Amino acid sequence: MAPVLQSSQPWVEKYRPKQVRDVAHQDEVVRVLTNTLETANCPHMLFYGPPGTGKTTTALAIAHQLFGPELYKSRVLELNASDDRGINVVRTKIKDFAAVAVGSAQRQGGYPCPPFKIIILDEADSMTEDAQACFFFSLIIEPLASRCAKFRFKPLSDEIMSSRILHICDQEGLNLDSEALSTLSSISQGDLRRAITYLQGAARLFGSSISSKDLLSVSGVIPVEVVEALYAACKSGNFDLANKEVNNVIAEGYPVSQMLSQLFDVVVEADDVPDEQKARICKSLAEADKRLVDGADEYLQLLDVASNTMRALCNMPQEFSFET
Amino acid sequence: MLWVDKYRPKTLDQAMVHQEIALNLKKLVAEQDCPHLLFYGPSGSGKKTLIMALLRQIFGPSAEKVKVENKNWKIDAGSRTIDLELTMLSSANHVELSPSDAGFQDRYIVQEIIKEMAKNRPIDTKGKKGYKVLILNEVDKLSKEAQHSLRRTMEKYSASCRLILCCNSSSKVTEAIRSRCLNIRINAPSEEQIIKVIEFIGKKEGLQLPSGFAARIAERSNRSLRRAILSFETCRVQQYPFTSNQAILPMDWEEYISEIATDIMKEQSPKRLFEVRGKVYELLINCIPPEIILKRLLHELLKKLDAELKHEVCHWAAYYTTAFSTLNDDDNDKADQEQAMRSIGCVLDRKPSFILKGHIPPFSLMNMVLDVDRICCQVHEHLQGLPDCNIWLKNEQVSIILPLDLLSIPGTQFLGFRLWASSVLLGEVDLLFCIRTMNDVLGVHVITIEQNHKFHFLVLFSA
């Protein structure tokens, strides 16, 4: 990277840990990998876990630490979803790369440089199924291969998150009060990348002192009043009122998927609603969520949820006269 | 020049609505540094205007000198080469494209074209703006694969390229992409804001506005500024000086849909269903997207229905929009638009039928048949190759009675029948099958047969 541009890098990249031991909160993984670094011996590994917990970071860090900058290019193949990963690519590229053996271990410039290569398959779950099958087949025919060691990445705890965030705030000269800090960890739900992105966005927009309100506006969380208003409209049993609220939500541009999850929180926490009604509402929320993922229209789905919620809350008949 | 373009704010300072957002955006790029951005909000709220003004803020007036290019790309995808044609708008510093135009091949656009563009860093003699901007429209219409492909691109080339994504609903953008962008919600302007803008334009154009006129336009605009300005201009062309009770014309398709709604409400009979179906087809032929038709129809119906039915109708509307979207995913060949249109039309066919279902006794569906004489001959002709078919002629109506087990014949006969059915569907001839077994009439069921997602057809039968 040209030094001029350093400042324009997203903080997510800027503060990506460069060494395995800097990876936060994943003690188990770090322990195994540090061991790997010492012995320069390494099983196939499968990292899995929620987004923003350090999977890619760890993979890149271990590759860098094993080979150092010089050998990195020739020894590590990084494939992610932005590359074409059809079956042909897996057949040719990976096999070609893996087929060329490398010389015996020589320590170069303080790096272990073990005699094997590393293929980082980022976002392996979005590979085509054929390619996955082919890939694992090619692993299995290799005599050395055994199963992948699986490493689960845990969502980051609030303390770890806070300490990372504070570290970045220090470096960037930001002021963050404790309320804003707790807001940040609650809205990012254990996803450090999201937290850092929000932080950077808020810093860009609102300058160096950031309040929790600023963070909320950047994160796209829907204000509590809006959710409450919709819930109240459903409770009133007046369809037109609910329709008006739904129209308002759409016109304000709030993401409906977010609305659903916040509405879910409201419903689950409501004390005056019997369990059966809650269950009915949750079912309709779940259905609408699935339809949204399938690409259905936001307005209609939210209206459907509102209507279902209303029928559940006001004890109106649940069944329609005709079902498909 | 249309007023919409003429009075589009050119710079962030000129913004009349969303001033706060404009101010924030200005701060955002003040240090020649900017994260990836995701603009989302309903249409006509000013996303594009803000993006263009933002570009001007970053790159100066040169950002406005855009040229339209129609580029052909050849992409080597292993065994075959894919030809893609894509329209893009570009200036020295930015490129704008709608990758979803490529249909199901959008993945290649992201993987190859966008990556290629993102890789090349613009050479600036002053060494100042070391990045270029890629604007992607309609990211919510991108397939899941394409969105997956985008995420690492966003990280990897972040030093040389900024992405500005623009979409209507951020629910359809994957979490992975949203978490990599600074999300900017653009809400639809309120009616007061729209009134302000209309009055501003009126003043600039030197027009006399009767009191309450702007408010009426704003009320009819559905909080879309673009629509408000367009209908304002239409009114100007139509009649000037304005009178205080001048009609603000609704869009003709909206008018048409409200007609359909009235039809549905007036009478619930098979005949009316047939008429409604014809009207829906008419709308589809005029390229009104089915989702929009359904939404509008629901809107109109909600005005008229009594409270109990509202729930049901809104439930089914929500249910059937999903059918459209999954249909679009499965429809691999977007070039085959006609085919897709036809299948959507057939699915949509179920829509009026379920509304009617609430009102008519199931038995009348039994004899839901065609009342056109000349179809009879056609039906005779086509059905000759099929076994055990009865064509019933009574009171100028034709019933086609097919044995139920015909549906279970997987082979050629059924295929032939299917093709014939589709040819009927294509023409003005409509068709409903009544299939009756030897048993007595017990009830009516609606089943759909999905062969390959190309044809859906509705079979009403009594078992």
TrEMBL record, chain A:
<dbReference type="InterPro" id="IPR008921">
    <property type="entry name" value="DNA_pol3_clamp-load_cplx_C"/>
</dbReference>
<dbReference type="Pfam" id="PF21960">
    <property type="entry name" value="RCF1-5-like_lid"/>
</dbReference>
<dbReference type="Pfam" id="PF08542">
    <property type="entry name" value="Rep_fac_C"/>
</dbReference>
<keyword id="KW-0235">DNA replication</keyword>
<dbReference type="InterPro" id="IPR003959">
    <property type="entry name" value="ATPase_AAA_core"/>
</dbReference>
<keyword id="KW-0067">ATP-binding</keyword>
<dbReference type="GO" id="GO:0006261">
    <property type="term" value="P:DNA-templated DNA replication"/>
</dbReference>
<dbReference type="GO" id="GO:0006281">
    <property type="term" value="P:DNA repair"/>
</dbReference>
<dbReference type="GO" id="GO:0016887">
    <property type="term" value="F:ATP hydrolysis activity"/>
</dbReference>
<dbReference type="GO" id="GO:0005663">
    <property type="term" value="C:DNA replication factor C complex"/>
</dbReference>
<dbReference type="InterPro" id="IPR047854">
    <property type="entry name" value="RFC_lid"/>
</dbReference>
<dbReference type="InterPro" id="IPR050238">
    <property type="entry name" value="DNA_Rep/Repair_Clamp_Loader"/>
</dbReference>
<keyword id="KW-0547">Nucleotide-binding</keyword>
<protein>
    <recommendedName>
        <fullName>AAA+ ATPase domain-containing protein</fullName>
    </recommendedName>
</protein>
<feature type="domain" description="AAA+ ATPase">
    <location>
        <begin position="41"/>
        <end position="172"/>
    </location>
</feature>
<dbReference type="InterPro" id="IPR003593">
    <property type="entry name" value="AAA+_ATPase"/>
</dbReference>
<dbReference type="InterPro" id="IPR013748">
    <property type="entry name" value="Rep_factorC_C"/>
</dbReference>
<dbReference type="GO" id="GO:0005634">
    <property type="term" value="C:nucleus"/>
</dbReference>
<dbReference type="GO" id="GO:0005524">
    <property type="term" value="F:ATP binding"/>
</dbReference>
<comment type="similarity">
    <text>Belongs to the activator 1 small subunits family.</text>
</comment>
<dbReference type="InterPro" id="IPR027417">
    <property type="entry name" value="P-loop_NTPase"/>
</dbReference>
<dbReference type="GO" id="GO:0003689">
    <property type="term" value="F:DNA clamp loader activity"/>
</dbReference>
Automatic annotation (TrEMBL), chain B:
<protein>
    <recommendedName>
        <fullName>AAA+ ATPase domain-containing protein</fullName>
    </recommendedName>
</protein>
<dbReference type="GO" id="GO:0005663">
    <property type="term" value="C:DNA replication factor C complex"/>
</dbReference>
<dbReference type="GO" id="GO:0006281">
    <property type="term" value="P:DNA repair"/>
</dbReference>
<dbReference type="InterPro" id="IPR050238">
    <property type="entry name" value="DNA_Rep/Repair_Clamp_Loader"/>
</dbReference>
<dbReference type="Pfam" id="PF22534">
    <property type="entry name" value="RFC_C"/>
</dbReference>
<dbReference type="GO" id="GO:0006261">
    <property type="term" value="P:DNA-templated DNA replication"/>
</dbReference>
<dbReference type="InterPro" id="IPR003593">
    <property type="entry name" value="AAA+_ATPase"/>
</dbReference>
<dbReference type="Pfam" id="PF21960">
    <property type="entry name" value="RCF1-5-like_lid"/>
</dbReference>
<dbReference type="GO" id="GO:0003677">
    <property type="term" value="F:DNA binding"/>
</dbReference>
<dbReference type="GO" id="GO:0003689">
    <property type="term" value="F:DNA clamp loader activity"/>
</dbReference>
<dbReference type="InterPro" id="IPR008921">
    <property type="entry name" value="DNA_pol3_clamp-load_cplx_C"/>
</dbReference>
<feature type="domain" description="AAA+ ATPase">
    <location>
        <begin position="33"/>
        <end position="192"/>
    </location>
</feature>
<keyword id="KW-0235">DNA replication</keyword>
<dbReference type="InterPro" id="IPR027417">
    <property type="entry name" value="P-loop_NTPase"/>
</dbReference>
<dbReference type="Pfam" id="PF13177">
    <property type="entry name" value="DNA_pol3_delta2"/>
</dbReference>
<dbReference type="GO" id="GO:0005634">
    <property type="term" value="C:nucleus"/>
</dbReference>
